[in-house]
Write a structure and sequence with these properties.
The protein is of the alpha/beta class and 183 residues long. It has one domain: TIM Barrel. Helices cover 42% and strands 15% of the residues. The chain is built from seven helices and eight strands. The strands form two sheets. Strands 1, 2, 3, 6, 7 and 8 form a six-stranded parallel sheet that branches. The chain has a two-stranded parallel ribbon with strand order 4-5. The longest helix is centred in the last third of the chain and has 17 residues. It is globular.
């Protein structure tokens, strides 16, 4: 992303889930922000109402595999099939590999049909060793122009998101950052 532009890209991985995704959407709406949601296909199957809420709110959709599988533990064909299975729900050109890992051959195959989007700032909101304040500090410490910031709309991140997400947004706004989504 353009490091000369004072903008960041908020992304959310692992949803949609009813316990967290609606709150994330309300928070983003409160601040008038659009984000990109990298969703797990099986979560869409289980929670179609929450998926539809994200879609209807006009957020950008991204593929995060059907079963949140790590590429290093799967063959090329099975991995790509899992990605395509998720895309039957998503109909997107964006993809993010779970954990940020995939084999080179998987990357070559996926890149033929998807734009692979990684991150430069993972908040670590999923970590049991961090609290909400730590997650906020990660944003404050590492955000820079063009940053792709990754949060998670997941149960294990929920308590930290409640504290960190609104405060991170307010801090980023106070620092003059705009919020963008991927073209």
């Amino acid at each position: 992303m353009n490091p000369q532009e004072r903008a960041v890209y908020l992304t959310f991985d692992d949803g949609p889930i009813p316990e967290v995704t609606p709150w994330v959407l309300q928070t983003l709406d409160h601040y008038g922000i659009k984000a990109t949601f990298f969703m797990v296909g099986d979560n869409i199957r289980k929670h179609p109402a929450e998926f539809e809420m994200v879609r209807q709110a006009g957020h950008r959709l991204g593929n995060h595999t059907y079963n949140h599988i790590g590429g290093l533990r799967h063959g090329i064909r099975s991995y790509v099939r899992n990605v395509d299975k998720a895309n039957a729900y998503l109909h997107t050109d964006l993809f993010r590999p779970p954990h940020g890992w995939m084999k080179w051959e998987q990357y070559i195959m996926v890149k033929q049909r998807y734009r692979v989007v990684m991150w430069d700032l993972v908040t670590r909101d999923y970590s049991t060793r961090l609290n909400g304040r730590d997650v906020l500090l990660n944003v404050r410490r590492y955000a820079r122009p063009g940053s792709i910031i990754t949060f998670h709309d997941s149960v294990k991140s929920h308590d930290k998101l409640l504290y960190a997400l609104p405060r991170a947004i307010e801090w980023l706004l106070s620092q003059g950052y705009a919020f963008k989504v991927f073209d």
